[in-house]
Design a protein that fits this description.
2 domains, EC 2.7.2.4, kinase, 6-stranded antiparallel beta sheet, 14 helices, single chain, binds adenosine-5'-diphosphate, nucleotide-binding, Carbamate kinase, ACT-like_dom_sf, binds aspartyl phosphate
Length: 464
């Protein structure tokens, strides 16, 4: 083992890469084999962060909400077991690994029952959600060992320290840096470390989760803590596209992006990256690569501080299922402190506000499910409404989609807004936010109009 701390700092001649593989990349044995190829092909890949196999977290999330119907619980648990056994049938793990997997599956059943019978505590849902990632790291480490790669399955909870907000825990980067130096760094000279994304532990070592899609965030936190030379996000598309290719078939991969652009894309709905992922990478000045596990030879996308090209319009994003909250109060007129009170109420409900427009007596705002405690429509609870109604009239509109044009100098390029509005033509725009950032121009439309608007804007701004 290397005991000289100076030699453990990654440099150009001693590079350290963190590779993260998402749910589709670890979905079955063939997919895991592709991950192993990528890891073996680059000896600088020392830390591998994995998500749960595709479909597992969705089922665990359903169980973690508390399913009282025993047959339904068993159905979901059996489906999860089939996914894992589909892998082990071909992997043929050692008896120890098999026993560990059995324990994990038994834990899933135990936690699900505790939650359904309301016998768990606040941390039980997160302990359950974490099991999907635990299965993946166990099995990928085993596959690597079978292929003569020294690999260990490392518990991310040893390093990813968070607060105790179960379901949406906030990481503690300084503490994570210290714990990584103590527990993770010493392992790196001897083995490829395979660990779990999405999960961490609070100060009392209770398992927490970072919010859906949080494995990217974990990988970036590991990269920052270890001062990695690069972070690789391996997924099912060959890079970040000009728009979600599932929504706009003519979208194409973007060779390079700035952190600011990628962050805007992630925030405004490009599901390919968790919105918080880029913060630790950017803080640590670590370039991020996004590539396709099935086609690793493809160019992918590099996210860096600076890029050579700076087009006015780089990409489009969409976030469906948006909620618009409009509050109206005559007391707002020439009053001070109304907005402060409004935001204090939203903060108490752990709701993060997204877009905001104001008039003399009303404020319209969209709620950000990604930065908030809960998700989607559940953000607007009866308690929130009744608290707000003490101060103002409240209207809630749902079924909206937020579309964002992402690029550079959008606030100082005159023709962008005029072209956009003429392209959209007859579609009703419910709200516009333009001016706060030179990197985005966003607006709300009816969800049913979103696909057509996206395709039209893509043709107008990004094709030809
Ligand atoms: N701008 C975009 N570029 C590429 N993919 C996008 C974009 N916006 C959304 N996506 C979607 O993100 C998906 C990958 O994210 P995700 O399913 O979370 O992967 P993983 O399971 O690997 O984490 C792609 O299949 C694609 O449909
Ligand atoms: N498995 C978790 C964490 C995650 O990031 O998954 P993926 O990398 O497949 O998006 C989820 O589904 O939310």
């Amino acid at each position: 083992m290397n005991t000289n701390p100076a030699s453990s700092i990654p440099t150009e001649s001693n590079p350290l890469i963190i590779a993260k593989f998402g749910g589709t990349s670890v979905a079955d044995y063939a997919a895991l084999t592709r991950c192993a190829h990528i890891i073996e092909n680059n000896p600088a890949t020392r830390v591998v962060v994995v998500s749960a196999a595709a479909g597992v977290t969705n089922r665990l999330a359903a169980l973690s909400a508390g399913i009282t119907d025993v047959a339904e619980r068993e159905r979901l648990l059996t489906e999860i077991m089939h996914i894992q056994h589909g892998i082990t049938r071909e992997l043929q793990p050692s008896p120890d690994v098999n026993a560990q997997l059995r324990d994990y599956l038994a834990d899933m059943a135990r936690f699900s029952t505790l939650i359904a019978e309301q016998k768990g505590d606040g941390g039980t849902p997160d302990a359950l959600l974490a099991m999907g990632e635990r299965c993946s790291s166990l099995l990928l480490a085993e596959l690597l060992r079978q292929r003569e790669v020294r690999a260990i399955d490392f518990d991310a909870c040893q390093v990813i320290r968070t607060d105790s907000h179960f379901g949406h825990a906030e990481p503690r980067p300084k503490r994570i840096g210290m714990l990584a130096a103590e527990y993770l760094q010493p392992e790196l000279d001897d083995a490829v470390v395979v660990t779990q994304g999405f999960i961490g532990a609070d100060a009392a070592m209770r398992t927490t989760t970072l919010g859906r899609g949080g494995s990217d965030y974990s990988a970036a936190l590991f990269a920052e803590a270890l001062q990695a030379t690069a972070l690789e996000i391996w997924t099912d598309v060959d890079g970040i596209y000009t728009c979600d290719p599932r929504q706009v078939p003519t979208a194409r991969p973007i060779p390079e992006l700035t952190f600011a652009e990628a962050a805007e894309m992630a925030t405004f709905g490009a599901k390919i990256l968790h919105p918080a992922t880029l913060l630790p990478a950017q803080r640590g000045k670590i370039p991020v690569f996004v590539g396709c596990t099935r086609e690793p030879e493809k160019a992918g996308t590099w996210i860096r501080n600076h890029t050579e090209s700076r087009p006015v319009c780089r990409a489009l994003s969409v976030r469906r299922g948006q909620t618009l909250l409009t509050v109206r109060s005559l007391n707002m007129l020439h009053a001070r402190g109304f907005l402060a009170e409004l935001f204090a109420i939203l903060a108490r409900h752990r709701i993060s506000v997204d877009l905001i427009t104001t008039s003399e007596v009303s404020v319209a705002l969209t709620l950000d499910p990604t930065g908030s405690h809960s998700s989607g429509r559940r953000l607007v609870t009866p308690q929130l409404i009744s608290e707000l109604e003490k101060h103002c009239d409240v209207a809630v509109e749902e079924g909206l989609a937020l579309i964002a044009v992402i690029g550079h100098q959008l606030t100082s390029t005159p023709e962008v807004a005029s072209r956009l509005f003429s392209m959209i033509g007859a579609r009703n725009i419910r709200m516009v936010s333009h001016g706060a950032s030179p990197n985005n121009l966003c607006f709300l439309v009816q969800e049913d109009d979103a696909s057509e608007v996206l395709q039209t804007l893509h043709r107008g701004f990004l094709e030809g």
